[in-house]
Amino acid sequence: MNILTFDVEEWYNCDFISENFNWNNYEVRIYEGVGRILDELAKHEIKGTFFCLGWLAENHPSIIKRIHDEGHQVGCHSYQHQLSTRFSPDSFRADTYKAKSLIEDVIGDGIECFRAPGFSITHKNLWAFDVLHELGFKYDCSIFPAHHDYGGMPDYGSSEPAILLQNGYEIKEFPINIHRLFCKNLVFSGGGFFRLFPYWLIKKWGKETPYMMTYFHPRDFDSDQPVIKELPKVRKFKSYVGLKHSFVKFQKILADFDFVNVAQANDVIDWSSAKRINL
Ligand SMILES: [Zn+2]
């Protein structure tokens, strides 16, 4: 099963931008970035899941509306891209409620799917699931089932959809999929590693895994985006490597694989045989 998801955020939406960074001072590239993706999906008649920032729904509602109008699933990716681990339960609830409400007002529909920025739900903030459940979310895509800069969750086990059994409720988890290479945990289905590795290798790894969860961003395909000079060297490399050819790779992956979005995946998965996890 291959699931197509996007994190809808601007070219500067990295978790390391300072708190007083004024988003309104920066070039708007989201219309072009999302438009490029939507046009390509329309050609292939594929529907994706788009995790959107509440800030975008507030400031650029038409792009969120276009995603919904074209039949894609809209999810929530926080209000302003703060890592979930930086919140207390109360401030996480306020942030997520605000983002969810803003997005729902724009699309005129409820949303049930969440992804934390930077896959930042870990053992340190499992209360995030309580909040998501309280706010009506049914699906989460925030788990990184291995060690990660922001924590990760190595004891989740193999990357596959599962039912999380939390404090008396259930939430369906669609984690990212990991590829082990030279003792490193790589995510090749989006972001820097998708841009870095040659397409034949991405295709090989994608065909080998029974479950692929992609996580593309509009900036992954935007070779004209401004460069953020302040980024640390390694981060800079990861952010801008392979931008020239990444959209061609994206076109190829859409042609070579069958994709569904999270809602469609939920409909075809036999949940009675899915693993059930108490984190
Ligand atoms: Zn993000």
Give the tags.
279 residues, alpha/beta, five-stranded mixed sheet, three-stranded parallel sheet, 14 strands, binds zinc ion
Break the fold down into its secondary structure elements and pairings:
Elements: E1 2-3, E2 5-8, H1 30-44, E3 49-52, H2 54-59, H3 61-69, E4 73-76, H4 89-107, E5 113-114, H5 127-134, E6 139-140, E7 147-148, E8 151-152, E9 162-165, E10 170-173, E11 179-181, E12 184-186, H6 191-196, H7 199-208, E13 212-213, H8 233-240, H9 243-256, H10 262-268, E14 275-277
Parallel strand pairs: 1-13, 2-3, 3-4, 5-6, 6-10, 9-14
Antiparallel strand pairs: 7-8, 9-10, 11-12
Helix pairs in contact: 4-5
The structure holds zinc ion.
Zinc ion binds at residues 7, 9, 77, 81, 117.
Describe the model:
The chain is an alpha/beta fold. It has a single domain (2-278), classed as TIM Barrel (Alpha-Beta Barrel). 37% of the residues lie in helices and 15% in strands. It is built from ten helices and 14 strands. Strands 5-6-10-9-14 form a five-stranded mixed β-sheet, covered by helices on one side. A three-stranded parallel β-sheet has the order 2-3-4. It has a two-stranded parallel ribbon with strand order 1-13. β11 (179-181) and β12 (184-186) form a beta hairpin. It is globular and about 50 Å long. The mean pLDDT is 91. Bound molecules: zinc ion. Zinc ion (ZN) is lined by residues 7, 9, 77, 81, 117. Zinc ion (ZN) binds at residues 7, 9, 77, 81, 117.
